[in-house]
Structures are given as C-alpha cells and as structure tokens.
Design brief:
Two copies of one chain form a homodimer. The first copy, chain A, has 344 residues and is α/β, with parallel strands linked by helices. Helices cover 46% and strands 16% of the residues of chain A. The interface between A and B is large, with 52 and 53 residues. Chain A binds a DNA duplex (30 and 30 nucleotides) through helix 2 and helix 4.
DNA sequence: AGACGTTCTTAGATCGTTCTAGTGACAATA
DNA sequence: TATTGTCACTAGAACGATCTAAGAACGTCT
C-alpha cells in the first residue's frame, strides 16, 4: 500500500475500548476521574492501535505544548554542549525542546519565528544578537530567556556567566604565575566580547599592568591571525576570547617555533570539548554549559508555570588549569636572581 | 502588564478589515478569489495587528505544515554542516525545518518522535542508527530519508555517499604517490565504518598490497590512541575514518616527532571545517555536505508532494588534496635509485 | 423509599484554521 | 426578459484534541 494510512485518533480508541472520546482523553493525559478497569481497557486499546496523541490538536485546545524553543548557532560547538544539557534538564522537567539553528543566511529572527510557529511556550536564545528592542517585542508574546548575554532589557530573563569574574580569574591566575606582559586577543564583534575586553583592561590596570588588546574573533582563524600579529612583540601570556581562538593562537605559536606553555602561556575561555582533548589540555575559564543550561530551563519553566517577573541570573565561572599555562621562563630566572644577594 | 496578551486570530483581522474569516484566510495564504482592494485592506489590517497564522490550527485543518523534521547528532560537527545546507535548501523550496538532536541520554527514537509530534511531513535522519525494522515502521507514518546510510530497507529513501568510491580514491591517491604501506584507522562501530573497512581491504588487495586496519572511532581521542598503537610499526600513509580521527592521528605523530606529510601521509574523510583550517590543511575525501543535504531535501519534498516510491541516491565523493599527503621519503630515494643504472 | 453524595461517564462547546458549498451581484448571451 | 456564467465573498462544517457541565449508577443514610 502506497498511500499513507490515516492517523488513529481518540475516536478510534474510544470505539475500540467501547467508551467515549472524553474518557479516552482523561486516561491518556493521566487526569483523575476514570475507574481502574476502564483505564486498563483504554490503555490496552491505545496500545493495540498504536495511538499517539496529536500534539497540534491538543495544543490548539489546551494551549499547552510543553515545548521549549531553543535557538543556537550551528557553527559554535560550545552551543551544542548547551543544547545537550538543555535536553536533559527539559526532559527531566517534562518538557520537550524544539531546536532552531542560526546559520549563514538564516538570521536569528527566522529562527525565533520558526520556534514560535511550532508552538514553543518559552524561548531560550543562546547568545542572542537581536537588539534589546526586538527581544522585548518577542517577550510580549512568550517568556524569553537569554543565555550568555545579560543586557537584554527588563522584560527578558537572562542566565549568564560573569565575564568580569572570569577575566579576573584569568588575569589573577597568570599574574600569580609571575606573568606581567599579558595580551588579550578579543572576540571582535561577538557577544560578550565587549565585556571581556573591558574587564581585561580594568583588571590589568588594577594590577598596575599595561592592558594590551589585539583584535581577534570567535574562531580558530581569528586566533591564528592575531597570533601572527603578536609575533614581533611576543608577550609571555595570552588570554583568548574563547577556546577556538586559543587553538588558533597556539597553532601560530607552534609555527613560530614557540612552545606552550614553556615560552608562552595561553588561556582559553568556555572549557569546551576542544579544551579537554588529551593532546590540547587547554587551561580555560569554564562557564559550565550544563549548569547554565539547567538554570535557563528552570527559569523558562518558572516563567511559564508561575507569574514571576523576569530575572537576571549571573553565574560565577571557574578556572580549569591544564597544561597551557605555567610560570614564564624569564620569571623563573628572575626568581633565581632574587635568591642571589642584590648587587647594586 | 504582566499577563500574556491573547493571540490575535483570523477573526480579529476579519473584524478590523470588515470582512469574513474565510476571506482573510484566502488572502493570508495567497489563494485566488479575492479582489485587489480587499486584499490590500486585509493585508493592512493583519500588518497593523501583528497577525501571525497559528500553524497548529492551520495544520490541524489542512494537514500541511510545510515542516521537514531533521535529526542530527549534536556531537558531530560534520552533521551541523549538513544542517546548515538543509536549512538553505528547504527554505528555497518553501519548507521550514524542525531540528532534533541525538545526544547523550537521548536516543534517536526520542528525536524521531519529537519531530513527528511537532508535525513534520517528512523525516530526514543523518546517519541513523535505528534498525531497518524500526525505520520501516516509522516510514509507514511519514516519508523518511536516511542520509549517509543506505542499508535502510526499501520503504525508506536514502541519500548517501559512495564509501567504496571514496576509499578507492583515497587508496589510489596514496598508491599513485608511491605509498605501499598504508593503514586504515577505522570508525569502530560508527555508521559507514563497516563499508569503508571492507572497501579498504578490497582496494588494497586489488593493488596487491596488504590491507592493515587498526581499530579507531569517530573522534579525536580515537585517532590519537590508534596513532600511538602504530608507533611501533609506522606505515608511510594512514587513511582515517574521518577528519576528527585524522586530527588525533596527526597529533600522535607530532608527539612522536614525526612530520606530516614528510614522514607519514594522513588522509581524512568528510572534508569538514576542521580539514579546511589554514593550519591543518588536511587532505580529505569530500562527501560534499551541501549537495548531500540538498538532494535529501529534494527527495523528501518529492515524496511529500508526489507519489513516487522510495529511491536510493548514491553520490560519488571527490578527493580534496591539501597538505597532509605527499610522496613517501623512501619512495623518493627509491625513485632516485631507479634513475641510476641498476647494479645487479 | 426517597434524598443525598460519590464516582464514573458522556454530550457538546471550543481552540484557530481550512475547505466546501453556497449566495448575491453583475455582465454577457440568447 | 430570462438564462447563464463569472467573480467576490461568506456561512458553517470540519480537523483532533480538551474542558465544562451535566447525567447515570451506585451505595449510604435518614
């Protein structure tokens, strides 16, 4: 048979079980008000017919889809780590996740509208690039939670990681290792890049150090280019905008015959899969994707089920020290020198 | 106002424009049967009220969602390249894409059912791991297209890349460079791994060479481990299961002080983003994600809109030679030797 | 026996669309 | 003038679920 068989509906099940539609509905959604015997009868019939409730019809009537819309950027592996964690958390709370990717030629607004069309009860956006105005407009239709970005106005929830704290940890870590010439390869126009750049400047100044920032971006090639630029005047430590950039930077150092961390220390950001690869072992500032995602799902569900106002959750990241950061060479010799009596 | 405003519906627009629901419906879906003047009136009213049709209701009635379900594995960057291309193609054909990820703790069946619940008219599965039986069962409900895997029974469409041809190209390329000791680091239990392993054996034998295969897997760590195993008896060329594995292999060679491609040639598979990174420049067998995705979307739409039977499309991959393959050293000296008069 | 309270069950309205089968109006044809 | 045809428009029934309100059935208490 080539033709697609008609979908089995409540009515079919009701017929088979010899009861009314309404009773089947009650049983299917586990509502109270059905005797154990008829419950069994109905479940059996549903099972036999392979019945699956039609979520469109269900939603149309009840305006509940138990669906959370999640938009992410397909080119950012770190985003997919958040996606994974969000799935787990949502499913634990009895929600499904509808995914929509932001890709080349597919702006965030398209992604958002696709998610709304499909019936999402709340929207989670990873590092949204929409203007606060646009976000606010969408937030009128459905609760919205922004991940990794917190300047989203007061109608939109946000769950983000404290970029200032993260950069502070990074700088503290490196200075405590003895580094003084530290460069930040920034994220260019990426979300959070401004905050991290500002945080870097502030933190370096507070250590009495010169904050040198070079232009970078969110991926390997950006890091590679920035690394080449630094060739002529190499610092002893580099704080990258993220792990991918850090990989590019490390590669440029390798090409220049420099060893990490012996000659130069490199610190990433995100603590993504890359960082954990056994041959990379990148020291990195972890935003903990899983916790971030879980918090965002919690927020979304709270907003859907309660009447709480939007809130802004900021998590403090933590530092994961692996094998790409160490004391600078000159520092070691300087320390050695310090052990000697000072000859004026 | 904290409360969520009620959705604007056809009725609201009809009121505002002073016409009937039905006419608004006609205008909104661009159907013939409305005068230009009232068309304008309705569009204006819809615009003013910010009306967006409710796809659930629309679908419920018309059983058309113009939605294609696409499942992918969140941990495979190559899959997200396909996702990107599928979005572009689908949107060109007037379809939206519903995404569902296969992740840790989220089996493919969950992903598939989520896509069905949301109203997908056809399903595209990237490298499905479901049994042929299960696939066939789902295919009874909705057209299904398998990507990158072709042994899916005759009820399911498939769009795949010819693994035999791909491996043949790989082996031919390396042998023509002069390699004779070529090892395949396989994909373990991954989809397509069997075919590539078999193809490798067949092709090597047809060249009169010994087919040596070592156990690997689909990611960097797998490649790394396999590379270490090879240390004791290093071939002159390695064909990896995919690019990620190739990266791990290269890393293991680097660690052992071997240079690619000077000491050992390494060939990847997929021609993914990784391969194209300027500091990697991996030679690789390209399956051309964009074309594969486009073909799969075409198939799905054909199945939805026509009554064609399932078919199996097999595309021939092509080789992209970059900087990780070259003639082996000993071969060069052998060639040099060949130039000399043979001393018996 | 009748009134009453539970518990189980059902009819019918409803959600926001699309679709079928009309109704009117107006021009063209006989 | 009556008939036919076209075109713009509309009323009302779907679609497959949920939900409300009300009807059976049954036991318990006066």
């Amino acid at each position: 048979m080539t033709e697609q068989q008609r979908r089995t509906t409540l009515i079919d099940v009701a017929h088979a079980a010899g009861v009314s539609r309404a009773l089947v509905s009650i049983v299917m959604r586990g509502a109270p008000g059905a005797s154990e015997s008829s419950r069994q009868k109905v479940l059996q019939a549903a099972q036999d017919l392979g019945y699956r409730p039609d979520s469109r019809a269900r939603l149309l009537r009840s305006s509940r889809t138990r669906l959370l819309g999640l938009s992410f950027s397909s080119s950012q592996p770190f985003h997919t780590e958040i996606v994974d964690a969000a799935y787990a958390k949502a499913s634990a709370k009895g929600y499904e996740i509808a995914l929509s990717a932001v890709a080349n030629g597919r702006p965030e607004s398209r992604a958002v509208e696709a998610l709304l069309d499909v019936g999402s009860e709340a929207l989670l956006l990873i590092a949204p690039t929409l203007s606060t105005q646009e976000l606010t407009r969408y937030a009128g239709q459905v609760p919205m939670v922004s991940l990794l970005r917190d300047d989203v106005g007061d109608r939109v929830d946000s769950v983000s990681s404290d970029n200032y704290a993260g950069i502070r940890m990074a700088v503290d870590h490196l200075t405590s290792l003895g580094h003084r010439r530290i460069v930040h390869v920034d994220g260019g126009t990426a979300v959070s890049a401004d905050q991290r750049r500002a945080a870097f400047s502030a933190e370096m100044l507070s250590h009495g150090l010169a904050p040198v920032t070079v232009h970078g971006g969110p991926n390997e090639e950006d890091g590679l280019k920035a690394g080449r630029l630094l060739q002529s005047d190499m610092p002893t430590a580099i704080i990258a905008f993220n792990d991918r950039s850090a990989l590019g930077i490390i590669e440029s150092l390798r090409a220049a015959g420099l060893q990490v961390p012996f000659d130069v220390s490199v610190l990433g950001y995100d603590d993504s899969q890359f960082a954990r690869l056994s041959y990379v072992q990148l020291s990195s500032v972890s935003q903990d994707a899983a916790l971030l995602a879980a918090a965002a799902v919690d927020r979304a569900v709270d907003r859907i089920e309660g009447t709480q106002p939007p809130s802004h959750v900021v998590r403090t990241p933590h530092l994961v020290v692996r094998n790409t950061t160490a004391s600078p060479r000159f520092q070691q010799s300087a320390e050695a020198a310090a052990l000697l009596p000072t000859k004026v």
